[in-house]
Amino acid sequence: MTSKAEFFWYIPNDVKACHRGDIAGEDHNSLDSLTAHAKALEDHGWAGALIGTGWGRPDTFTVATALAARTTRFEPLIAIRPGYWKPANFASAAATLDHLSNGRVRVNVVSGKDDLAAYGDSEGDSAHRYTRTAEFMRLVRRLWTEENVSFEGTHFRVSNSTVEPRIRPREGRPHPKLYFGGASEAAERVAAGQADVQLFWGEPLDGVRERIDRLKALSQTLDRDLPPLEFGLRITTLVRDTTEQAWADAEAKVAEMAKTSGAGWHDHKRDVAIGQKRLLDLHSRGEVLDENLYTAPGKFGGGGAGTTWLVGSAQDVARALCRYRDLGISHFIISDTPYLAEIERQGKQLLPLLLPPQD
Where are the alpha helices (DSSP H) in 24-157? Predict the structure, then answer.
């Protein structure tokens, strides 16, 4: 796999222990425990981690800031929501953290439903949420790259606004990358027009290929005035020493899920979005697609990246990820539980097959 590809992990950031079968104690969400994950990621070759968000979970930006302060290379991919944040407030906070962390901030903008009323936001339909998200992303980018910004849109307004400290442009990175996900027509218009990276769940290769082609064509239709849209994959990777052991463990995990109807896994099953529905429907095409894409977890809710798994030896999973790379995926966010142990296992067994050798 080319050096352009980047590999991130996932930090669930949840007050409840045992997320997706994790083995965790009462202190699983303490700063020391979270720092242990971030430092293990640094030690085993990962670029950083996506940090989950949602009302009723610890504040994602605060967690990211704490972990950036305790590490030197770890890059937090911070999930945030328009409505929870106003564009200027977020642009300022992110610019400050980017300055203090020497350019390590990345941002995942989330438009999906949340407990909006709990933090004073208002519920809108899908079209409202996505037009607001597009406006949010456009304005945040302007605040990071321009001075004395004035803007009056449908959802947000600023007058003569300059963010300090200024974002320091770096090679190939004029500002922190804005990641985005969504499979509806409205979501794809946001991605094609405003995102830096479009994230996909673990769909089969034919579905990802179709969506990449459609988004590229849509970018041209919308006269995108940004660098070409990049693409990422968020998926579970179950890696073991042998193919046989991996499948035995995967089937055992699914059997445990079946006993509890996926309790602790289906954190995306409420108010199922179009992208999540696509995943949940995949098992009707077969339990295994594309050689080692395991769809059985979706029978029990799965939940986001837990709905489909790439299963096998490190060589099997690396080959599968390379097939996605060949379609144009360059950002990979992978994980499995127990999270901390798998950071080390997959860092030792899988990443060397995917990244160029270090000098």
Answer: 31-43, 60-69, 87-100, 126-145
